[in-house]
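Reading is simple: each integer encodes one residue's backbone shape. An example follows:

___
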Amino acid sequence: MVGSAVGDAIGEIAFSYPKKEKLLKVIARVKELIYTDDTAMTIGLAESLIERKGVDQEHLGETFHKNFLREPWRGYASGPPSIFSLVRRTGISYVIAAKTLFGGEGSLGNGAAMRIAPVGLLFYRSALLYDQACASAEVTHAHPIGKDGAAIQAYGIAQAVSLDPQEGFPRERFIKNLISFARTSQIREKMEEIQNLLNEESPERRASERLGRSVAVHESMPFAIYSFLRYPESFEACLFCSILNGGDRDTLGAMAGALSGAYLGVEAIPQEWREKLENLERIEQLAISLYELSQNQ
């Protein structure tokens, strides 16, 4: 949870300072790391999961809506506010409203994957993980690719949090599990492409171009996973790989940071960054509550 929020906040700064040396200087200078809608929605998802002990789609939609009204300046894309407005005007459910987007196909953006860390944490050892991830995604991202992408990111987090960094990172097993877990050809093919790029030891920039860096989940989430698998032992190296190659930097940082944080633990995140993170205590408490709840799943 903290890794995702730090990645989000630093990724947002990287839009203005895309070179590592300058970015590090700016991070050192700022008094607070301010997160975006990525983390705001992650917090909302965690709040709803804890209160309902799982995904309750209407409650989740209401939680997202309430948090948006309190902080509309977080940088939300057009999708969630459109859904909130439609629900308020018509009284239909959030899931039905989400299905009206993009000509009735629903969104396949990365907005469900960027916030999915709480689902990965709560259901990290549960057979319900895929369905719960899709249910949480469907409140705003109804397209099959949007849901599958969120589920793959959740499964990546679930795998990562289950591993012991002292035992060495099982990269081949990790990526093969992701390939098997995917249910759409678009996501599965990108997982296979990650495997090829890592085996070929391709440069980061080439990997980012082949995997994608856009707001579509199948064109961004894979590069976040690649960044983690390329640098599993370093939160900083993983984060900078994900955010310094262009594209949707804050969301790439949120997704890569979630994976790295889940694997390495909070102490692997530079202390200076953690201490500057906005709302740190609240995020940490939500993570602890999710872990405690997960022991009953």
In short: Residues 2-294 form a domain with the ADP-ribosylglycohydrolase fold fold (CATH 1.10.4080.10). The chain has 19 helices and no strands.
